[in-house]
Structure formats: structure tokens, C-alpha cells
Write a structure and sequence with these properties.
It contains ten helices and six strands. By secondary structure, it is α/β, with parallel strands linked by helices. The protein has two domains: 7-130, Rossmann fold (3-Layer(aba) Sandwich), CATH 3.40.50; 135-216, 3-Layer(aba) Sandwich (Rossmann fold), CATH 3.40.50. The radius of gyration is 19 Å and the shape is elongated. The model has no long low-confidence stretch (mean pLDDT 83).
Amino acid sequence: MKKLKKIKILFADDHSIVRNGLRSLFRGAPDFSIVGEAADGESAVRLAFLKKPDVAILDISMPKLSGIEVTRTLKQKQPEIKVLILTIHEDEEYVYQIVRAGANGYMLKNAEKKEILSAVRAVAAGEPFFSPGISRLIIEKFVKKAKEHTEKPKNGHPILSKREAEILSLIALGMTSREVAQRLFLSVSTVNTHRANLMQKLNIHDTQGLVRYAMLNGMIEAK
């Protein structure tokens, strides 16, 4: 019988009661292996480099380094490590910053235990996972930016449709066509068609050019 390959996880939270809860949750699931626990951001980074987990589960507000800073560091130096944010913060600015930092998922601590397990499994498999309330915040923010862009075209550039502006914003944040399709509930082929239309309309021939266009026209913030 083939041995089950366990998902190696590391979690970081400055509250011991949260770490105790996570430890109990994952020890009770046979497909997980806890390889590290941390109470601050610096320890999380050090353990991640040492233990190389499949998924790092991080709070945003931690001593020494925030979850956002930890995410950015891991994605720059160990991009194969998936990051799931588990936090109390349901704030669009936090969500925006953590998505830009490269997180693979964002969950609220009040989620059901089975939802947290499902989120970690999805992220480990390379799929983005955002709790329903967070997905709503993300979409609302991009729709707002898209509306502003379509209503106020700059420097005589072609006016983009709302859908084109939404897709351009998501592409500029580093999402693949599949990730954009999942976020906007479209097919991958539809997203690729919009991407091709954007390049033709804007006379841009690569993804880096689309990112620069989005930054220059205020659709995302420059890093």
C-alpha cells in the first residue's frame, strides 16, 4: 500500500492559544505533518528556510516581522513555499498588501476547522484560496479601480472596458490566466482572449508591458 505523502506545514502566530489550536487541528488530520512553530516573524523566516515546509500559515500582526514582510521574504528567497494568511483582519488594505506580497491564500480565524484544512490542502496543491468575505473585498477593490480607469482615461490612452480593466489589474498583480479566471469566475480561454485584446488595444506585446501600463495609469501601486 502506497504511503500517504503528508503536507509539511509551519505556522506562526504570537498568541500561544492560537498555536495550540492549530497544533491540535493539524495533528488530528492524517495528511499533515507539523515541521515548525513560531511566535514571531523572524523565527518564522528562519524556520521556513531550515525546515522547508510545503505551506507556511502566518498571522499578519506579529512581533519583529509582520506576516506581510515574512511573505515577501519567503516569496523572494523560497518561492516554492506556499503561504496562507490566517488572521482576524478583514480589511481591504491588508488584503491588497498581502496579495501583492505573493500570498497564495487568505483566511479569517473565525473560519470553520474543516475550511482551514481545505484551504491548506488547496494552497499546497498550487490553488489560490480566499475565504468568501475576502474574495468579495478583492473583487470590489478591483472593480472600483476599473471603474475609475474607464471613467477617467489618461493621456489619450484607449478606454478599457470594465472587464478589461479588471483583468489587467489582476494580471499586473502577478496572477496567471488560471488564477484570474478563478477570481472572476471566467474560463481560462476567456481570460486569454481578453489578455490578447488588451495587448492589441494598448499596443503592448508582453506581460511586463501590461504591468508597467497598469502602474503608470494608477491601476495598481508601484512596488
